[in-house]
Amino acid sequence: MMEIEDQHILIVDDEPSICTGCTMALSDLGYPTESCNTGKEGLDALLSGRYQLVLLDMKLPDMDGMDILEKINAAKLDLCVIVMTGYASVKNAVTAMKLGIFDYLSKPFTDDELCSAVNLAMENMRFKHAHLAIRRQQTTRRDFSNIIGEDPKILKLFDEISKVAVTDTTVLLNGESGTGKELFAREIHAHSKRADRPFVAVDCSTFSSSLLESELFGHTKGAFTRAVADKEGVFHTANHGTLFLDEVANLSLDIQAKLLRAFEMHEFKPVGASRCETADIRFIAATNRDLKSMVEEGRFREDFFYRLNVFPITIPPLRHRRDDIPRLLYHFLKKFCRQTGKHVDRFSDESLEMLIKYDWPGNVRELKNVVQRLIIITDTRVLDYPQLTDHWEAGVKPPEEDIPETLEALKAAKQNLLENQFGEIEKAFFKKALLDADGNITQAARNVGMQQSNFSAMMKKRGLTAAPD
Ligand SMILES: Nc1ncnc2c1ncn2[C@@H]1O[C@H](COP(=O)(O)OP(=O)(O)OP(=O)(O)O)[C@@H](O)[C@H]1O
Ligand SMILES: [Mg+2]
Predict the structure, then answer these.
(1) pLDDT class of 467 with cuts at 50, 70, 90
(2) pLDDT (0 to 100) of residue 70
(3) Would the CB of 288 count as within 6 Å of ligand 1?
(4) Residue 398 has pLDDT above 60, yes or no
(5) Cβ–ligand 1 contact at 25 (below 6 Å)
(6) Cα separation, 156 vs 135, whole angstroms
(7) For ligand 1, is residue 177 a contact (CB within 6 Å)?
(8) Domains and CATH numbers, the chain
């Protein structure tokens, strides 16, 4: 919730007495208030995005108030405007209203008139913000904010999973180890109508075939030697919810047949029981193996494969979406800093270059582990090349074909990589920060933990304005 002390006011008027008078009255209300005497100064200050409200004199010596209004409008600032004018020209008022001003004060005005106009404007602003915050919560709920990734391949998956999540369709997640299959499975469940019901994950590779059967379906007392009491299986626990069958390629043909029956008949039989129990379960399965070829080799039941493969989703390995590498690196950097209480600001350009080039055979899990290790080890605010080479053997060796022949070629390659890849990523990073803060630069800088001046400098460097499109 936005507080009064976060609602900064700027007064732009060439008459110093007006500035002092207003400043005093508004400071008494608790609003941090500043003033400028020229249009140019006022406009520059407003474009910094620091203010929530401006009291603008329409008749300034150096600039026309209407021009200022047009410019702040074009910058799409999250700013409320109250116009002050010595003469109430109707034509001006109408044009100014079109430019979205909130209110009008015609000079001379009393402190009371000023305060009630400002209070009303600020209340309106707080209401708008609260409303926006609620809307954002709703969208993040529908969004997949736990999954970091903006590569088009991942965005396409978001689209697919948002569509399939709400259905009861069986989903088969394919992907190398560490690509996030379980994370996706949990998100599908979280976006389904079963979200309030259990999500139960079973790793099909950790049990022997007979143990797995009782783990899945449960058993009755005396069903086998160690069955000293009735036991409910995960089918029971997951009833009305989602059952995630992980590493499904490891299922024995025998269990596959039993699962097939459970899928088709919506019922299962605990080991040793004489009667079936019904199950209302949504299934999500995951594998890093090629089930189709296992079917061809006779190691996986074809009928069961088709039962699972209703809605296949393949999560691409990290090396096929390198743009996401810096995003993930910074995501985990922040996460582990929070966890450890350390202050690490960034990766040096050299280290970032190396991390982007690496092939990440263990995908996101491997990347997460590397960042965690680096954060634990580092004593500096910048994770740089020497730390990386000391604590990350796997990535130190660059891929053979990319080794430049000369020093010039090496420099060129570095420049190229930085400009092409990092430039875009950096731009996207600042753009997103701005978007998340509704174009408010102060807020955006604060959110990412940067000084506002540095943030503005980076925006300028990457050609961004406060109103990203
Ligand atoms: N896109 C992502 N954004 C954020 N975290 C991710 C992402 N992908 C994976 N992770 C994290 O990486 C780790 C590995 O992910 P997960 O366990 O879902 O992978 P997996 O595909 O199931 O791996 P395996 O096949 O080895 O079981 C988890 O901690 C997960 O939260
Ligand atoms: Mg997994």
Answers:
(1) low
(2) 86
(3) yes
(4) no
(5) no
(6) 23
(7) yes
(8) 4-140 (3.40.50.2300), 152-316 (3.40.50.300), 320-461 (1.10.8.60)
Q: Identify the helix (H) or strand (E) that includes residue 91.
A: helix 90-98
Closest Cα to atom 23 of ligand 1: 178
Ligand nearest to the CA of 289: 1
Window from 147-161, 288-302, 392-406 with minimum mean pLDDT: 392-406
pTM score, whole prediction? 0.59
Neighbours of 437 (CB within 10 A): 19
By the 10 Å C-beta count (0-12 exposed, 13-18 middle, 19+ buried), 294 is classed as middle
Sign of CA dihedral 381, 383, 389, 393: positive
Atom nearest to 173 CA in ligand 1: 21
pLDDT value at residue 239? 93
* Summary mean pLDDT of the chain: 87
Please report, rounded to a whole number, the percentage of residues in the chain having pLDDT higher than 90. 51
Please state whether beta strands 80-85 and 53-57 pair in parallel, antiparallel, or not at all (unpaired).
parallel
pLDDT band, very low/low/confident/very high, at 141 (cuts 50, 70, 90): very low
By the 8 A CB rule, do 34 and 7 touch? Answer: no
> CB of 316 closer than 6 A to ligand 1?
no
Nearest atom of ligand 1 to the alpha carbon of 331: 4
Q: What tokens does 170 get?
A: 């069986």
Instruction: Quote helix, strand, coil % in the chain, to nearest 5.
Output: 55, 15, 35
Per-residue confidence (pLDDT) for residue 388, from 0 to 100: 80
Of the listed ranges 127-131, 379-383, 388-392, the one predicted with least confidence: 127-131
Instruction: Round to whole Å and give the CA distance between 172 and 310.
Output: 7
Q: Which residue has the tokens 């203010």?
A: 51
Identify the nearest ligand to the CA of 324 by its number: 1
What is the distance in A from the centroid of ligand 1 to the CA of 223?
37
Select from 357, 330, 346 the least CA-distant residue to 414.
Answer: 357
DSSP 220-243: -TTSSTT--S-EE-HHHHTTTSEE
| Range with top average pLDDT, 1-15, 38-52, 378-392, 393-407 | 38-52
Q: Which ligand is nearest to the CA of 245?
A: 2
> Among 365, 367, 369, which residue has the most ligand 1 atoms within 8 Å of its CB, making it the best to mutate?
365
Please tell me if the CB atom of residue 256 comes closer than 6 angstroms to any atom of ligand 1: no
